[in-house]
């Protein structure tokens, strides 16, 4: 059973992760043409479609995290997304300039760390302070 203090900490973790994705999704939406150009520069095939998918994943995923809706599945999807964006967007092994390479390394490992946070949410679930928590039976046992 999830204790109230644990649920509060899980809620804070969900909000912290969601802010990053809501902000990123909003910036992609507001600067859509620039984001498509960035994806083209990285060699992403069908960049205009990829931009739509990335923006939707970040905005809808962020909203789902805040509300705690299907948190385990959403968190797993966002963990995969964070790793994919690390590999595609922060490919430090292809960067030759030292300062740019160091920046890419930092962002790559930041994405890996974020994926780790999402994997923890995949295991813990949303806690009681969530839509998932309101749907869970109130008897004994583990809750998501």
TrEMBL record:
This is Inner membrane protein YphA. Its main location: membrane. The chain crosses the membrane at residues 7-26, 46-67, 74-93, 113-131. It is a multi-pass membrane protein. It comes from the Bacteria. The keyword Membrane applies. Keywords: Cell membrane, Membrane, Transmembrane, Transmembrane helix. Belongs to the DoxX family. PANTHER family: INNER MEMBRANE PROTEIN YPHA-RELATED (PTHR33452:SF1), OXIDOREDUCTASE CATD-RELATED (PTHR33452). It is found in: Cell membrane.
